[in-house]
Design goal:
Blueprint (H helix, E strand, L loop, with lengths): L1 H16 L10 H13 L3 H15 L5 H15 L3 H14 L4 H14 L2 H14 L4 H13 L3 H14 L18
Helix pairs in contact: 2-3, 4-5, 4-6, 5-6, 6-7, 6-8, 7-8, 8-9
């Protein structure tokens, strides 16, 4: 019974934490079009353009403070300052708990640090908020491979490649016995 009372309190705390952060921009229509275009792309070079455009949309934070936190975290990540990157991305996730890319970038920091167990909760949250995020899907697959969970990784890779057949990680798909790719 005590747990039933905690759940509404936790939800209220999450909403309160996000009180200052507006809803992330809705790029659904643009992403739908990009997924269609990448699936019809005649080659990898053309597909990269569409993939790059997807990333631009995913990296479009809800407001200026959240964009600043994301940009600072990614700058720190690029120079290998994982402590600063984690700090900025922790602040972003606290400020905007419903913005998928904050979790995805924090998962990436943990992947680069080799803390694979820490990657999965963030990448799973990213996929709850944005189920078609191919970057998060491939990141999850790579993490599962690092953890020796190859069968699970194969399922996730196939899901990612079904969305974008030109992903570089497609080369990691192996054909299980008796199953078509």
């Amino acid at each position: 019974m005590r747990y039933a009372l905690l759940i509404p309190a936790i939800c209220a705390a999450q909403i309160a934490a996000a009180d200052g952060c507006p809803v992330a921009p809705d790029h659904t229509d643009a992403l739908d079009q990009l997924y269609s275009q990448v699936q019809q792309a005649p080659n990898e070079m053309v597909a990269r353009t569409f993939s790059r455009q997807m990333w631009e949309l995913w990296l479009d934070a809800p407001d200026e403070p959240s964009q600043s936190m994301l940009d600072e975290g990614m700058r720190a990540l690029r120079v290998g300052d994982y402590l600063r990157a984690t700090d900025r991305l922790d602040k972003l996730v606290s400020y905007c708990p419903f913005y998928a890319e904050g979790y995805n970038q924090r998962a990436f920091v943990n992947f680069l640090r080799g803390d694979f167990e820490a990657v999965l909760p963030d990448v799973d949250r990213t996929l709850e908020l944005n189920p078609r995020h191919t970057g998060a899907l491939t990141g999850k697959a790579m993490t599962l491979i690092a953890l020796g969970r190859d069968a699970e990784a194969q399922r996730v890779l196939k899901e990612a490649v079904s969305l974008n057949p030109w992903l570089g990680e497609r080369a990691l798909i192996t054909e299980p016995d008796g199953e078509d790719l």
